Amino acid sequence: MPSRLKLVRDNQTEPMPDAVPANDAGTRPVPALTLPAAPSRAAAIARSSLAAVLPPLIGVSTLILIWALVAQGSDYLPGPRATLMSAIELFSDPFYSRGPNDQGIGWNLLASLGRVAQGFGMAALVGIPLGFVLGRFAMINAAFQPIVSLLRPVSPLAWLPIGLAVFQAANPAAIFTIFICSIWPMLLNTALGVASVPQDYLNVARVLRLSEWTVFTRILLPASIPYVLTGAKLALGIAWLSIVASEMLTGGVGIGFWLWDEWNNLNMEHILIAIIVIGVVGLAIEQGMNLIAKRFDYRSN
Amino acid sequence: MTAYLEIDNVSVVFKARGKSFVAVRDVDIKVAQGEFVTIIGHSGCGKSTVLNVIAGLVDAARGGAVLAGREIDGPSPERAVVFQNHSLLPWLSCYGNVHLAVQRVFGNVESKAQVADRTQAALALVGLTHAKDKRPNEISGGMKQRVGIARALAMEPKVLLMDEPFGALDALTRANLQDALMDIQAKSRNTVVMITHDVDEAVLLSDRVVMMTNGPAATVGEVLDIDLPRPRHRLQLATDPRHHALRADILRFLHERQRHPVAA
To answer: Chain B residues contacting A, CB < 8 Å?
Structure first.
């Protein structure tokens, strides 16, 4: 019985000998977990960080292994090694420019991020203040609710033709698509945040007879910031999802178009690289927003 | 007795899902200036509703309340409330919470330095100068309630309304805060209306205890004068026969005449 052996050994190193008879007298086997196994703190930290890193590492390695196996038996899917080689070559010169249709992956990424920033920024400028109004005034909220409910489930790409018709140009149309699809989460979450400010805080405001402006700056705004930032995080996620798709349709410089272009070139390595890059950038955006949300949440500091 | 605060024949009706529900009926309470009045009753008897009428947070269906000769119409800083759950804004420090109230009441007529002094003085009064830069979630429940009291007192209200201010605290902290409140009262003689369901607290702190019948349609059952001399000390009261008699009066009302309908 290994756990029993471990128990005896640990007790022998124990400074208090009276612990031994107590354990020996025990009729039930003591589970190994409850032992006072206290090696150094450093070892404990190393073990806990290993426990945090190991499972994801196993997951990713397994995925790469499956990828390699599938690529072995496939005519068109490049394996991890070929993709890595191609990526090294690609990222050795990310910022070259040979005409409008042949630019480095860095330029393409920056172009996409720029569109997301513009569309998202405008959506924040409109959506967050509007969300405050909807959350504060039930009448206006009731008037807007059916419009929001109807438009929110529409796929972002459905707005692209409207954008093209209105702006007569691909780039503003793509930004417009981002604007439309990222405004809803910000609007709805801000409204929810304002509407769910605890009545206690509003009673304080009523007893003090604070002006509407003071109520906004001192109570509504700080109380709803966590909701606003959740909305912004969701909006950025949707914006990043949509930009790739809309660029495939609008063309120009951008990671979505680049991916489509590489499909036309039948460069499968580059397509896989694009997918990984899009994923990594999306992950980075989300983590960044989490950090910002934590920084501004009154509950966490 | 000349009434400073007069609650005159107040009835409050709540509407829920199309049905109306009479919470309190024909409540008459008169409070003199500088008097400490406690309203006691079983939970759900509408004690807080009466307090909220005085605060102006709830409208009376019939009757009304008059403070210093003026009809109460909506909330106002002249009737400061200490809420049961302290209701401090979690994103402001203790100082910030008190300052917000002081700034609102005195900001228009006093200089920045005077407003700051008032805020400091209010925190000093409740013994929290050392914790002024802490956020509410960094201090204990008793300290939070002290900040709530400091915030209310700093507004220099005509009447201080306290809604079970110590109800959520442990017994030792509660006793501590009761003593602190008595000290403050000895100096400043505020007019106070306090809600409680604690018989000992009512006897210890009050000049008069208003006992309410059970809801629905609760009303004033009896009013008891607490003529114990001040300053009062809880240890001396423990052996004082007059204290026992007063305590017994309230207990008799609550447990014989107004047995709680639900709780056993």
So the answer is: 55-57, 74-77, 79-81, 83, 85, 87, 89-92, 100-101, 104-105, 135, 137, 155
